[in-house]
Specification:
7-stranded mixed sheet, Rossmann fold, alpha/beta, GroES-like_sf, oxidoreductase activity, Oxidoreductase, zinc-binding protein
Length: 322
């Protein structure tokens, strides 16, 4: 009898009813790979969209899930028994992902888990933190950069925390009162967003000359961000309205020498993501980044219910525990 494992798997897309709890052969690592026993796996909105068929390159049948934390059971000697975490574009899309008891991936695709993070905490951070890190890197956020982060979700919170470590000046902005209060409670000066046409005036009250970088995590504030931007400023975006289109005030953008930076976490494989996790993971152990709170841990076997809840807009971060 070959060893088996429990996993979530879908063989068709378009409906969450295609997702099932199944028994699969435990994967066997090849040369240069590791077998990781999953201790915790994050559930991201992109995992739900994957089952719903939003990613044309997903191959079937497939075990979904990008983010994980666990222990290396097979692979190179120096990694055996190590507590690791990881994420990346292959997992759940064209290689089996983390919503299972085990995952196989490149030995260079795992990073050592920060000691100060539990497995569940580490599993909650992969996609939001690598997305935020990439946005800050590619839009040039450094010491004293005047940064505005729009939105109240996980990526926005990660960007604010990472920017603070870099020594940037940070300003948050959110639409809902409870988001504003939550961001202020985390210690960030926060704008309460009103009408798009008033954003520039709101930003100018805090940053004379405008924001050098605006990271819009919502997809709705790109046109309004242009007047709020400093000369040679950058606007980073990770989302768009449902039809994918937005009216961009191009004249105002190029007169300012401004640029728009598209941020897509699915451009990075597990090895590139592991390199990012290594870079900022140490900040958790150094006490420079906040430890995740309010996670909802759920048995993997109840994953179908959890997927449905995320699809219906449940806000808390769900962690699947095999």
């Amino acid at each position: 009898m070959e060893p088996t494992m429990k996993a979530l798997q879908f063989s068709a897309t378009g409906d969450l009813a295609a997702l099932h709890v199944v028994d699969l052969p435990t994967p066997v690592p090849g040369a240069g790979q590791v077998l990781v026993r999953i201790k915790a796996a994050g559930l991201n909105p992109s995992d739900v969209k994957n089952v719903l068929g939003r990613f044309p390159y997903t191959t079937l049948p497939r075990v979904p899930g990008r983010d994980f934390a666990g222990v290396v059971e097979q692979g190179p000697a120096q990694l055996l028994g190590q507590e690791v975490w990881g994420t990346g574009k292959e997992l759940g899309f064209f290689a089996d992902g983390s919503h299972a008891q085990y995952v196989v991936l490149s030995a260079q695709g795992v990073a050592r888990k920060p000691r100060h993070l539990s497995f569940a905490q580490a599993a909650s951070l992969g996609v939001p933190y690598t997305t935020a890190w990439d946005a800050l890197e590619r839009s040039g956020v450094a010491r004293d950069t005047r940064l505005l982060v729009i939105g109240g979700g996980a990526v926005a919170s990660a960007a604010l925390a990472l920017a603070k470590v870099r020594g940037a000046r940070v300003l948050a902005a959110a639409r809902r009162v409870e988001q504003v209060q939550a961001l202020e409670a985390q210690g960030y000066p926060t704008l309460h967003l009103q009408q798009p046409e008033t954003l520039a005036a709101q930003v100018a009250e805090v940053y004379a000359g405008g924001a050098e970088v605006i990271f819009d995590t919502t997809g709705f504030w790109l046109p309004a961000s242009v007047p709020a931007l400093a000369t040679f400023g950058r606007i980073a975006i990770i989302a768009a309205p449902v039809d994918g289109h937005v009216q961009l005030p191009a004249l105002a953008l190029y007169r300012k020498g401004g640029s728009v930076v598209g941020i897509n976490s699915l451009l990075y494989g597990v090895e590139a993501c592991a390199a990012m996790l290594e870079q900022f993971g140490r900040y958790f152990d150094e006490g420079l980044l906040p430890l995740p709170e309010g996670l909802v841990e759920s048995p993997l076997e109840r994953g179908l219910e959890r997927y449905a809840e995320v699809n219906q807009g449940r806000g808390e971060k769900i962690i699947l525990i095999p």
